[in-house]
Write the structure tokens for this entry.
Amino acid sequence: MRANIKNKKSFAKKFTAAVAISAAVVLFFAIMTIVGLVIYMNADVDIDENALLFENSLPDVYDDCGDLTAYCAASRSDTPIDQIPKHLKDAFVALEDKRFYDHHGVDYIRIMGAFVANLKSGRRAQGGSTITQQIAKNAFLTSEKSFSRKLKEARIAVSLERRMTKDEILETYLNMLYFGSGEYGVKNAARRFFGCEVSELTLAQSAMLAGIVKSPTKYNPINHYDNALSRSRLVLSLMKEQGKITDEEYSAALSEEIAVADDKSALELDKTYVVNALEEGCKILGVDEKELRARGYRIYTYLRPERQAELKKTVDDKSYYSAKDALCAALDVDVATGGIRAAYSTFSANFFDFRRQAGSVLKPLVCYAPAFESGLLSPASVLTDEPCDFNGYSPKNYGDKYYGKVSAREALAYSLNVPAVAVLQSVGVQRGYDTLKELGFSLSENDDNLSLALGSTSNGTSLCELATGFSTLANGGVMSKATFVKRIEDQDGNTVYDNSKTKPKRVFSRESCYLTTNSLIYCAKNGTAKKLASLPFQVASKTGTVAAGDGNADAYDVSYTTRDCVLFWQGSENYANPLPSNVTGGGLPALMCKNYMAKICASPEDFEIPDGITQLKIDKIAYEKGEIVLSSDFAPEKFVITEIFDVKFADFEKNDSFDYPKAMSVEAQTVGNEVSISFTSDPHLCYKVIKKSLFADDRIILDVRNEEGNVKITDKADGLFGYNRYVIVPYYFDDKNRETIGEIYQIPVGW
């Protein structure tokens, strides 16, 4: 018993000693770690202060001539700290870094608080970055999420605090922040959202600006006012708690009605373009906007300032709108390179991500071009336009009007829905689907159905996708994706991306593109896009309208020449609140397109006819029956239709009615002095039946003009001894309306 007690005491002593030694070791390493961190944090860091200067402005974005864009040039002017109201500075400090004036770059108290909060929640609910750390991250580091990057961020922040005053740090921070809607810095944000200068901001407005930066999309006061207002009240409450405003100031700010101006007068001419170019540059390089700025990339674009000015002028012209809440966006693309020369919208549009239903504007790409490509269709092909059920899918025409037999050219030009669905069914839904995918359209598996013929897709269609598709048609079937970015250089001038090195891809043959384009030229002259008919050069055009309720949600016109592809879209913000039903693609968007192209298109060349395209004369009478037959070389013009075909698919029979005019199956029968004559007539020809007597003048007893079927005549012989001779004369009129006689049939009767 005593031995057991002794053993237990011995074990307890050993365990206590082991714990004490372990604690000492842990304490030693903890102290060494802290000492190491202190040494690491306080070691001086070699900082390129030019990065801070760069951080206070947009990245360099250049136009097609290599000049800095106007919007980037304007962003170079920052707001000095002495011109920024105290309540605006206090709002940001209260929300982002309440011990900003007390710490030396890193707020250890905040870090511990965030650590405890995260432990309690079981996730990363809070961060501990100070304002200085945010500058360090944005100016010198990538957006990588790792412990080592966080250490670098803290170390740089401490070093910045040694080199800069608190006012200099705060000035840098407030001038580099992104507020959404393409606005960087408090000066631009104040002008855009409230239509005033920074010095004129009220306390309530300042609180709203401070609340935006956590999520510029979620708290954007233009699009999400309630979110922004709720966030601003949080900022005001923090300012009151921290003693930065009085109770009276807090109450007054809460009761202030904050009017959001959405003042686009502060926008530079090319702002929409620059913002899209920056977003595309980020995607190309795989970085976010902060990293793009921090690394000093220079982006060269296809922007043409003179076109941008004209496009903006057209879109901003109120005479083109029949609804005050209509939205509009437009693109001008170089068909040879896919380079976007101008881009503008009445809202903050991302031309790659802004997606709407395309409607009929998609028909040439998904239906007709693939059908021409496969030889299943030509512009002259006869289609049936009447109500039809396609295995449970029953499309209707606009206005529920149907036109019976129409050519493919007419069906496309007048944007008839039933023929388009029939064409897609004929060519195969998979073929149309694959064609759109090859052109870069974003489709889901659910889009593999006949409604694709009418532009209905799960994801909607972006304006850049449409521009790419129609530019491909204009460029003879060679696709170059629509792009803002020509090339990108790093801060040392090395080219890290060059769009000219991207290999173009052939999607359509030159022949099928020409057949489609020629049909769309007809659309611009006679069809839904006929508002462009007065343009003094060849232009192909397609309109599209998407209905919603009693109105229309989307209206498009896409037009192109051999050089330029221009797209105009008008629409409503959502499908629940559409525009009036009179807003169609062939209306105001087509008019905008026509007037814009009249000013920017300098006598483009006509579309070149490929060697594989042939022009053939087809027989009109056969065509009206739904058949394509070549006409006789001798046929008068009124019996001829001229159409174009792909040589590979132009093997047609020929009508020989005019080669040697004749009547068919002639029969004659006499009973006493009565004669019956019958023959089969050709609708291309005319026929005279002439009665001849020995001692009397010839008489025409029947004249049949362009009738088809059996002709029968009965007559009494009244000549000498009951003898007459009947003559059938097939004939036609040539182009100069002169009678041409064919084979003569003589039928003697009597004696």
About this structure: The CA atoms of residues 330 and 534 lie 21 Å apart. The chain has a mean pLDDT of 88. The two ends are 162 Å apart (CA to CA).
